[in-house]
Amino acid sequence: MAVARGVLSFHMGSSFLSRDLNLYNCWLSKKKLASSCYDNSQTIEAVEKKSDTVILKESDFQEKFIKGSGPGGQKINKTSNCVELKHDATGIIVKCQETRSLERNRVIARERLLEKLRFLYNPSESKQQQRLDAKQKQEKNIERKRRLREEAIKNRIEI
């Protein structure tokens, strides 16, 4: 399982739950774990409500190594260090050829795929959405200042 951060897993009877470690809240109480009548559906609903991260499993995507292109001379054309990931469920394709290292490109490609999935499933929490929000806020401020400037010029002329 390839995950951006650590994963906490529970295995109780026939139920298997996995959860990202970056949450500070414990969603399984000791009483619920100790009870003999453990309802898996309630826990899954609780996890879905508190889930703020996307977990990416190795079985969720296909990975290919293709020859790179662009600057770098003969070496870039001979080695297959460009990584292409295709997410099976959504069809999102991510290519990465940032470095000469295949392992580093694999890590970067997974990070990019995770960011795209975060934007798709939880847009308010993704970095891309935060950048868009900041840009829109900046444009609104520029427009507000322009209107204030025009209004000040108009008031000076009327006097």
Automatic annotation (TrEMBL):
Output this protein's name: Probable peptide chain release factor C12orf65, mitochondrial
- GO cellular component terms listed in the entry, alphabetical order: mitochondrion
Annotated coiled-coil segments of the chain: 125-155
**Primary location group:** mitochondrion
Stretch forming the signal peptide: none
Q: Where in the cell is it found?
A: Mitochondrion
From which source organism is this entry? Hydra vulgaris (Hydra)
For this UniProt record, give its keywords in alphabetical order, as a comma-separated list. Coiled coil, Mitochondrion, Transit peptide
| Residue ranges of domain Prokaryotic-type class I peptide chain release factors in the record | 54-153
Q: Which gene encodes it?
A: C12orf65
